Amino acid sequence: MGQCSVPKMRTKKEPATHSLHNGLVLNRKENFLSTYVVERQIGQGSMATVSVVRKKLTRSPLTQASGIPEDIPMNGPRRFSSFGSRGSSLNSSQCSSLSSYNPGAYTLSKSSRSRKFAMKTIYTNRINKNLVNEIRNEINVLRQLDHPNIIQLLEVYEYRKRIYLLMELCEGGPLQIKLYTEAQTCHIMGQILRALVYLHEQNIVHRDIKMENIVLENFIDEYPTVKLIDFGLSQVYTCSEKLRAVCGTIYTLAPEVITGEGYTAKVDMWATGVLMYLMISNEFPFLTNEFELQDEVKKKRFMEGKFFFQLPDLVKCVERSTDINH
Ligand SMILES: Nc1ncnc2c1ncn2[C@@H]1O[C@H](COP(=O)(O)OP(=O)(O)O)[C@@H](O)[C@H]1O
Ligand SMILES: [Mg+2]
Predict the structure, then answer these.
(1) Would you kindly state where each structural domain of the chain is located, as residue ranges?
(2) What is the pLDDT of residue 105?
(3) Among 206, 288, 289, 227, which Cα is nearest to 13's?
(4) Ligand 1 site: residues with CB under 6 angstroms?
(5) Which of the ligands is closest to the CA of residue 229?
(6) Average pLDDT taken over every residue of the chain
(7) Distance 90 CA to ligand 1 centre (A)
(8) Lower CB count within 10 Å: N or C terminus of the chain?
(9) Strands, DSSP E only, in 77-168?
């Protein structure tokens, strides 16, 4: 079995080709830590640290006097109901409680306070300019997206050479390299593909589909909801022009990215195919070493599929993953 920690190839990207709107994601120029408490680190990427955070229990004089919670649940660009069964905006009964105490509203606030989020922190003075551009690209792209299988960006904080991205939390962590049943693989693949259809319909290519960039909503479900994260390398494309920047992660790189002949959004489908192979076989279908891969490309063997997996192996894998169902 191979390892997941293969090196990433990040390069300068083509500039985005259209203007990106700001959606409903809040932009703040203040210290994130004055509003949120960090509980623990949940992930470490190539440039960012991701932590579990929750809102601080503070109340303004107005809310203290009125009994109204200060932290009305944040309005993300979608799925307002996910902030609590009572919704996210003030309804008439909550409005009336500006002058009288409303226990219902207070209960709602308490649950919103205990809600946890994921916070991705980037120290802009510790990374090079390309990576800073990458994070700005991620923010711009995520702002436009609204899909149940794509992570939701809620707020962006910029303060003293740090950028914080407040996102919905997926407590199950990233997709693990292990054997999944055929049914689980189908369940997860369906969600990734739906997210990609949505993305490609908007002419955005992700370019870094891999196990570490798919997170599970929780670790309890046998058939979990998964979400796509890390849009740093994503790119708006036009159908008339091929992309050329060599970027992505070795084990999911499509041949046309490596050969430099130009590529399209289909590279995301290639990478998804690699993940599906990994999930049903627990093995990498292609090379995971950058130097070996370059060697294969030089000898033109990569394009000819000379070292691709053998079909009988794949059949055995499918049988094995079906077996663990029974
Ligand atoms: N919203 C989230 N919920 C839970 N874990 C997350 C979330 N976002 C990122 N992570 C974890 O943090 C890791 C790094 O995040 P990522 O956005 O990929 O950073 P980088 O851009 O540095 O690669 C991921 O592989 C994942 O384990
Ligand atoms: Mg990542």
Answers:
(1) 61-107, 173-320
(2) 39
(3) 206
(4) 42-43, 45-48, 50, 118, 120, 151, 167, 169-170, 173-174, 212-213, 215, 229-230, 232
(5) 1
(6) 77
(7) 32
(8) C
(9) 116-123, 153-159, 162-168
C-beta of residue 25 within 8 angstroms of C-beta of residue 156: yes
**Tally of CA atoms within 13 A in the half-sphere of 104 that contains its CB:** 13
Handedness of CA 228, 232, 233, 238 (dihedral sign): positive
Give the phi and the psi of residue 224 in degrees, each rounded to 5: -75, 160
Sorted by sequence, the CB contacts under 8 Å of residue 184 that are 6+ apart come out as 222, 223, 279
Q: How many residues does the chain have?
A: 326
Q: Which residue has the tokens 């990374």?
A: 127
CATH of domain 173-320: 1.10.510.10
With a pLDDT cut of 90, the percent of the chain lying above it is: 51
Q: What is the per-residue pLDDT for 305?
A: 55
Is residue 147 scored above 50 in pLDDT?
Answer: yes
Q: Pick the residue with more confidence: 6 or 305?
A: 305
Is 71 a residue of the active site? no
Question: Three-state DSSP class for 173?
Answer: strand
- pLDDT, greater one: 283 or 112: 283
What ranges make up the beta strands (E) of the chain?
8-9, 26-28, 36-44, 49-55, 116-123, 153-159, 162-168, 173-174, 204-205, 214-216, 226-228, 235-236, 248-249
Whole-number pLDDT of residue 148: 98
pLDDT band at residue 301 under the 50/70/90 scheme: low
**Entry pTM:** 0.77
Q: What is the reported pLDDT for 259?
A: 81
Closest ligand, as measured to the CA of 214? 1
